[in-house]
Amino acid sequence: MSYHIYSFEKLEVYQLARKFKIDIKLMSQLFPKEERFDLISQINRASASISANLAEGSGRSSNFDQAHFTNMSYSTALETIDHLNTALDMKYINEEKYTELRIKLDAILNKLNSLYKYQINNKETLKKKV
Question: Which of 106, 108, 117, 127 is the most buried (most CB within 10 A)?
Fold first, then answer.
């Protein structure tokens, strides 16, 4: 028996966000235990929202609705930057790890921005096709 691959799963930005979420989860496991309900929770939820919003938005019937969720994905990626800055400031991660994650996040942000522009400018929506 096989399963269906949804369109969002084929997006390179979704695949990158999915991997990034795991990178963050593995990194945050090294944070002090007292951060479990604060920074660990916040950074994991924010990074998970990047891919989750892409998935949720793909089910919307108009490009504007899809773009709204892509924008939310972009916003949570920016929120993740703030959490990474805190992790660096608190010396939970070193400069090398910070730079590695920021480069990955910048690539995701650039792709999200491109996807958003495409969704906003594309005149063919699912509603017109139905």
Answer: 108
